[in-house]
Amino acid sequence: MANQEHLDKLKQGIDAWNQWRRNYPKITPDLSHADLSHADLSRANLSEATLNAVNFSEATLSEATLSHAYLVETNFSHATLSGADLSRATLSTADLSRATLSAADLSRATLSAADLSAADLSAATLNEANLNNANLSGANLSGANLSGANLSGANFSQANTDGCIGCPPMKPTSGEATSANQEHLDKIREGTDAWNQWRRDHPHIKQPDLRGADLRGANLKASPGSGFGPPVGIDLSGADLSGADLSHADLSYANLSNANLSNATLSGANFSQANTDGCIGCPPMKPTSGEATSATSEEDT
Length: 301
Hints:
Layout: H1 4-10, H2 14-23, H3 182-188, H4 192-201, E1 286-288, E2 291-294
Antiparallel strand pairs: 1-2
């Protein structure tokens, strides 16, 4: 529960609150579970505060500072956070539905399983944020920056991604093609060597279309390297595998740089030694022997 002294100080106004924060920088404010709905907290310094399960619904927090704050299960529905600093904040399972977060800084924030449906994230910064299993359906992400963000399991259905950096390609609607290119699908089913040769023979195809492909249990493992070199993995760099079923597929040593695996089924898939630089939807690599060299699907954990 909220510390009553801290809550009383906040109710004295933003100027008094911010001055108190400056006078007592070592105090960590605790406003957890407080009802601050409809409150005007613009430009408030709430950095590093404990704000778990606070009700900020329809509150105004424009240009407020919430960096490094703890906001687990906090309710920001319909709140205004334009220009707010939420960098490195912990917002797991928070409700940000229909919130206004235009030009907000959410870099490196933890938003796993957060509800951002219909939120306005236009021009927001979300680089290296953790959006694992977040709901961004219907969100406005125009001009947003999601570079380096973890988008595994995130829902972008009906989202506006115009000009968004790092957003996954939107699935076609209104009768547009939604399945893999049959030539590409047939070729990958021939195995790693045939596929890699095809990639070399067709360098102009930068983004092979494997959307929705059924590759369950596919043997896409690496070929033995020549001499003492490492195995040669399948080249899926830039490939669109959104919505594909890769459950139990062997992708060891695969090159998945800049590939799109958003909404793909990855249960039991083997990503050991894979290159996932810039990959959307790839599972985080698990360190081995001090280095991040292997990965398993988060669906298995």
